[in-house]
Amino acid sequence: MRPDRLVTADELAIDPVVAAPFLLGCELESTGEAGTVRVRLVEVEAYRGKDDPASHCYRGRTPRNDVMWGPAGHLYVYFVYGMHFCANVVCAGDGEPGAVLVRAAEVVHGADIVRARRPSARSVTALKGPAILTSALGLDRAHNGVDLLDPASPVRLLTGERVPPARIRTGPRVGVAAAMDTPWRFWVDDSPAVSTYRRGGRVRPR
DNA sequence: GGTTCGATTCCG
DNA sequence: GGAATCGAACCA
């Protein structure tokens, strides 16, 4: 039987690099007007704080990244490329901000809702990409800061079936130019939903 | 106040 | 390979 329970704050109040592999296999459940969609995370990326040039928090606290400095277990949603939203699970360690970007997932429940939200999508079950994930779950800026560990929240984080460590792969983060040497992307090796890797652009000189 | 470019996706 | 499309961050 599935260990279906909410993730606890203790499990996320740690270094995002440690929390990231833990989140593989966990499930996000989003309830909106259309109903409830539930997905199993199969690809994530860790972002730290001032020691991570790729992190939104690298240059300090701003209104945009504020949620990343708050309590673990909240949802950090940001708008990018003028049209997409990406979602992160906030983590914390050593008084530094941190979060784990959810990059890809498999739909566990609510495929009909996902199809309605993404009519022209190739697959209704494989959500390969962070913005595809948020659109399937119906997440946008209104969900920024939501507590994922509260059963009454519109979006919740549950422990799913554990992923055996042997099936977890790591590599550099997608689309990130800085910190190419840190393998902080984690994915489930045998999942068909894992996104395709793209290198980041050139590192911009300061 | 103006400019740059992104933790992306989809189409050609 | 390139467009779409907005705003946060950065520089003047």
Automatic annotation (TrEMBL):
EC number: 3.2.2.-
Origin species: Amycolatopsis suaedae
PROSITE patterns for the chain: PROKAR_LIPOPROTEIN
BP GO annotations: base-excision repair
Record-level Gene Ontology MF annotations: alkylbase DNA N-glycosylase activity; DNA binding
Family named by the database record: Belongs to the DNA glycosylase MPG family.
Annotated protein name in UniProt: Putative 3-methyladenine DNA glycosylase
Keyword annotations of the record: DNA damage, DNA repair, Glycosidase, Hydrolase
Pfam families in the record: Pur_DNA_glyco (PF02245)
Catalytic EC class: hydrolase
SUPFAM superfamilies reported in the protein's UniProt record: FMT C-terminal domain-like
